[in-house]
Amino acid sequence: MTITTEPQRATQPAKPPATRRRRSGVADRGANRLFRYLTTGSGVLILIALAAVAGFLLWQAWPAFTTGSDELATKVSFLQGEGSLLAYLGPLVFGTVLAAVLALAIATPLAIGIALFTSHYAPRRLAQVLGYVVDLLAAIPSVVYGLWGALVLAPLVQPIWGWVSDVLGWIPLFAGPAADPARVLLTVAVILAVMILPIITAVTREVFLQTPKLHEEAALALGATRWEMIRTAVLPFGRSGIVSAAMLGLGRALGETMAVVMILSPGLTYSFALLLAGKQQTIAANIALKYPEANELGMSTLMATGLALFVITMVVNMLSRWIVARRKDFSGAN
Q: Can you give the pTM of this predicted structure?
């Protein structure tokens, strides 16, 4: 007896109604359009805020630019003896750039070393602890750094600066005798280096962790040591990231105020002497110090110095973007 069975038909999933699909597509398109508008608006808002700050500074500084040098020196108390606005602004720009560059020169090698240690050398638990500690440094207010620098660091480094002045005093940078207390630009540079260290370290560490594992394993498989692997695979890959991190730190150092005010003994000269007091001053610290005594025209003068600091920061950011764009083709990141 032959039993024939009818082949079972494969059950097809029920198709959603056309109206449901249509509503889902309309909702997706609406959400995409809303997200596009939000992101575009956010980008435009940044540009508007930047243009508003630049316009405000230029508007407030315009009376100082249009007033004659003699009248400006007569009506602004802290301009007496400087001759003109440019003569007053020049040493401030010089001191600002010098302090920031010194801080960057101190902080960047340390940040790269810490980032390499936490990303490629330290055990995982130790690396996590060190990462948290370094990140916490960024949360400390600048006034606390200023108090620590004035009350603890300056007396601590005074004998060191004296020894440096005695041994290397023939170099203009370390001409002495070193000031006592050590309220000099080199002390300020050390404080600024500590302040920008967590920024550079955090960004650099994340860039190093993004190095392709195949690159590292290939270098080790070819017989490279740990340092050779880092030199040939990790550092070339992270070169553009290091530059970006350094420029972020430089921007923080350029605009730092309270720590500089509380440590540095100010002066308006073009001097590379890092161990002598009363030689340099920064723009941000000068604005904070002169603001209480400034009249209307004096406030305009301070706004002009703030505009100069704004321009310097813009130039630094544009330069960093150019360097990163120029070096990324050779970094191995592609």
A: 0.83
